[in-house]
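Appendix B. Raw example, untouched.
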Amino acid sequence: MTYTTETDRLVADRLNGLESLLNDVFGADQIIIRGTKLEILDLMSSSRPEDRILAFEKIVFYDSGYNGSDGTPMERIDKLLNEVAEIVAKKSMEDQLEKIIAEKMQEKQEDYYREIKLQVLKEQSGPENANTLRKFAELECMEHKTLSRSAMDLLRPASLDEIVGQDKAVNALLGKLASPYPQHVIVYGPPGVGKTSAARLALEAAKALETSPFGDDAPFIEIDGSTLRWDPRETTNPLLGSVHDPIYQGARRDLAETGIPEPKPGLVTNASGGVLFIDEIGEMDPMLMSKLLKVLEDKRVEFESSYYDPNDDQVPQYIKKIFDQGLPADFILIAATTREPEELNSALRSRCGEVYFEPLSPQDIIGILMNAAEKLKIKLDQDAAELIADYTVDGRKAVNILSDAYGLLMYEQRDRKTKRLVIKKKKIEEVLQNARMSPYHREKAHSGTEVGKVFGLGVYGFLGSVLEIEAVAFPAAEEGKGFVRFNDTAGSMAKDSVFNASSVFRLLGEADLNQYDAHVNVVGGGNIDGPSAGLAIFVALYSAIKALPIPQNIAITGELSIRGNVRPVGGITEKIYGAKQAGVKKVILPRDNLGDVPQGLKGIKIEPVDNVEQALNIIFKAH
């Protein structure tokens, strides 16, 4: 092609470049297709620049029905180039957007696929997955890894005959449970005397009777009262039960989704038809005790929730029944405590019969140990058992000491082939030394006499003990200005007993205490919480002033009035047991307490008195 001018040559070059660009943007095939539809193929192959420009304009503006525009060829070409640039930019943006959309759709498709897959797996296998099944397998393996029975499980009483030293208490408990109309019971007694075992075995004995209301499947539910606390929000209560509200506590999922609260039964419902045993009931929260008393009265537990709508058709029948009628709680309560009766809730005591377990004597402890030795298939020397009995009055603790000695001996003889182990006194001494234990029973009493020293009797919890009370007296440093000193740690009531003793001295026509400087002391600095040491304090002062010796195998208890009468005191049973364990042969006590003395006592004599003169005659009759 021959160009007439430089402009024609430049236009031709620009048109060739535009044609090449269009082929790249639209594709050669698409260019031909558009040219055919527009019937411009002759224009595209024309030698005239104007025809080619027009053809390219129709192709670029294909959808707009474009038929050309004004302007020079270069201007029209520049306009086409700008339009193609817009198309290229738009197409690039659309391609990039389509790529992003495709990627997002792929991700969504994969997520949807995974969700469908999980749903199918869940429908086929339920709530289990690989992780939960692995944990379940681990639990199953743990279930098969068991040690031998613990010593306490093996040595726990298996029958009522194995409960040593509590025949009267066991019979009283059976009488309250074996009746066709069983009673709620409070069991008093020191720790380790068999209260829990007796309650469990008494239920089994009652179930065997034809007239018993307890069925063969009657449950024995055991709980420690010291672990029970009242929740003022009432969101949780293991004893009485609670309501799991759908919003704050999360009831069962299908209930929470419909806003329905879910009641949860407590121990009182689990024990229905059987026995609920609450140990250390004296430690329970007072508010929770009040709630328990209401349950004992109604034999049902009521539930409330602001989320419960009785008119909601979506509420299951069992939940509607619980909220409308409550849950059954028809059980027999056996409550055990180491506290004194007066420390318990009076309303609880009025609803219950009361059974008292006695402190264990050394012989009872020995009997428990010998039974335990038989179960362990070992031999326990008598002196070894007696040594353990000197260190504890708790049957559980005694068995623990024996178990420690058994384990120690088993380890020491691990390489020996011994048919039967023998536990001797030396091995028990080793265990006691390792445990840093001190003797509980001390033989304080003896057959001799001493001036100004007498044994009083005290009680702490359900354990009696001997108090050593001593007195000395000297002529007053100044005539008529004598004084009586008493150690401050003994307590205010003990000091009042000293003042009462001063009045009784004058009442009996004896020497005026103002003529003496006297000092009364409780050995060991014990606190005397009550007036029961009044008579003993008087006797110690009387002996010191008169220089009369007191037999050291006598113990005294009783309140002394300012008129010389001996008034009744509490804890007689425990005090007598404590005196007996200390080697005392004779106990002087108020005559009004004679009915409190345990029956069948051996090795100790009881001397009841009405007034101080009778007590003095018994103590000093040899003088």
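End of appendix B.
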